[in-house]
Amino acid sequence: xxxxxxxxxxxxxxxxxxxxxxxxxxxxxxxxxxxxxxxxxxxxxxxxxxxxxxxxxxxxxxxxxxxxxxxxxxxxxxxxxxxxxxxxxxxxxxxxxxxxxxxxxxxxxxxxxxxxxxxxxxxxxxxxxxxxxxxxxxxxxxxxxxxxxxxxxxxxxxxxxxxxxxxxxxxxxxxxxxxxxxxxxxxxxxxxxxxxxxxxxxxxxxxxxxxxxxxxxxxxxxxxxxxxxxxxxxxxxxxxxxxxxxxxxxxxxxxxxxxxxxxxxxxxxxxxxxxxxxxxxxxxxxxxxxxxxxx
Length: 295
Fold this sequence. Notes:
The chain has 295 residues and is mainly α.
């Protein structure tokens, strides 16, 4: 081989090595092709490429088709809302009401929203912070966003129990995943942008199988819209009680919650938080019980 050829080969190898360093920062892991498409799209939408590459090659990142399959067969009517009205749950929620009295009083003064309804929402959403979800938010949203990719779609469909497939045809699953993928991409973009701005690790966060996070289980796009810095530290952190309390109140106020409104009017606002009649009924009932313990 001539000297010129050797120099050209050496230059080519150096270029490949440089590309691998870019694709595989620090960890040495290679960016999966399906993740590459997500990186490209998010980069076009304004996120930093290096930040994304570093994130998606980390060992904590992995696709979770089983979580998406589970979300497709989840039925609101099958959820046990009665548990939130059991004596042990109500007593625990009353204790939260008393423990955070000062924050709740400040919230009432600022927003004009009653503490019992805010605490009822926090109780039903996460048992006032005791259980905020087990799914890594980045993984869930990324999988949903990529769910129409043929291999991922196939894995999700295969994970649906056989008894459910009589109701969920492939076409219906595709329609549902189309909706989820559009929403999940927007939520993933909002989530990553927020956590980069706050210099927080997005892969440290766990939430619901739909990507909702924190004590109030906000979707990431709602944090910028309705989130509120309740403790005045300059950032919105829905894992902090004061911020969570104020953010729920901010949501209710933005949707015209009226303390003197009819039960139906109140339900309409609550259903904007969670479009479930069972949920709305439980929130109203629990807030009525809590009102007996609030001045």
